[in-house]
Amino acid sequence: MSDAMPAWTLTENASLKALNTFHVEASAAQLLELHDPSLLPDVLALPQVADAPLLVLGSGSNVLLAGNVDGTVLVFANRSIEILEHRADHTVVRAGAGVSWHGLVMWSLQNGLSGLENLALIPGTAGASPIQNIGAYGVQVDEFIQTVEAWDRETAAWVRLDPEACQFGYRDSVFKQMPERYLITAIELRLPLLHALRLGYAGITEEMQAMGVELPVAADVANAVINIRRRKLPDPDVLGNAGSFFKNPVLPLEQVEVVLQHFPDLPVYPADQDTRRKLSAAWMIEACGWKGYREGDAGVSPHHALVLVNHGTATGEQLLALARQISASVLEKFGVPIEPEPRLIGAQW
What is the distance between the alpha carbons of residues 168 and 164, in angstroms, rounded to a whole number? Predict the structure, then answer.
């Protein structure tokens, strides 16, 4: 009898509490863990899978489970990282969908590669990173993605999508727009050997000064980001959360100017177009008095107004109700709509 790991496992009536960083209790009719993604077409054709809805979960760091999942939850367990090619100025790296994102960032730095340092300590998996086009401290992952490998459920074929086909935007992509179509099995990143460090985002330069770093390298930037995030954001293993719950709204310049006439201290940042600007959702939420608020076990972090937290036994429905209250108060005070970053499962916004 072989001791080799099975290519896949299927568990009925499985708890999802350990598979979401809010740690809300929810269950799936069945949980499918896939170690060999080449078998994806075969497992999708299994009668008990083919006839049920499908939800892919990475580490559950960007979802709010507002109810149970009637169908199959698919977890990719392929966690290998490999170098595909070395060039004079860059290296192409392939990461399986199940690889820890932060683990991938640290691996890249340990291997002399740069670019991902501003994205350190973002929870989640490599396979989930293109969906949200994750970003932090002035950097987005689409700057480095060369190819996304996925199974196209619409055409029943393997596809390799370049950045243009991925339709990346601010916290957006074709994978987010069409969540039922693509199942991401791996990503390939083009990482430079020499890369201009991004130090302009608030807090990074100050943090490195506090660290005593005068001539920073990429690893120093990563350490600064890790320090900042650990101060600002609660550890999901200690206090359930999904990081920043609300997106910073991006509005036309004319609309921003109107808001600033009434609230001149509201922080404004560049956006993806010269005619648009990004506003600080955290500042607006805090101005509405929500920072540190708690209702039962659903609350807002006292350290960061963007972060909803589960103090213990809050349900997904309770956290969603709180998020709706916050959004409504920001709209009433500022006339600016704010939307959730995490994907809502079992509910509509």
Answer: 7
Residue of 94, 171, 229, 343 marked catalytic: 171
Contact 216, 206 (CB under 8 A): no
The span from the CA of 320 to the CA of 65, in Å, is 9
pLDDT of 308 > 80? The answer is yes
pLDDT tens column, 209-252: 999 999 999 999 999 999 999 988 899 989 999 999 999 999 99
Measure the CA–CA gap between 118 and 135, rounded to whole angstroms.
8
Look up 244 and say whether it is catalytic: yes
Lookup: tokens for 349: 């916004």
Do the beta carbons of residue 152 and residue 182 sit within 8 Å? yes
Structure-block tokens of residue 200:
């302009």
Active site residue 327: no
- Strand pairing report for 69-76 and 54-56: parallel
Tell me how many degrees the CA angle 94-96-99 measures, rounded to the nearest 5: 110
Which position among 27, 129, 173, 244 bears the catalytic label? 244
146-172 pLDDT tens trace: 999 999 999 999 999 999 999 999 889
CB 69 within 8 A of CB 16: yes
Report the C-alpha gap between 32 and 72 in whole angstroms: 7
Neighbours of 233 (CB within 10 A): 21
Which is the catalytic residue, given 117, 149, 207, 341? 341
Please say whether the beta carbons of 24 and 60 come within 8 A: no
- Enter the pTM of the model: 0.87
- Spatial strand order of the sheet with 90-96 comes to 81-86, 90-96, 182-192, 145-152, 157-161
Report the chain's C-alpha Rg in angstroms. 21
For the chain, counts of helices (H) and of strands (E): 11, 20
In single-letter form, the type of residue at position 199 comes to: L
- DSSP assignment of 245-300 equals -BPPPEEEHHHHHHHHHH-TTS-EEE-SSTTEEEE-HHHHHHHTT-TT-EETTEEE
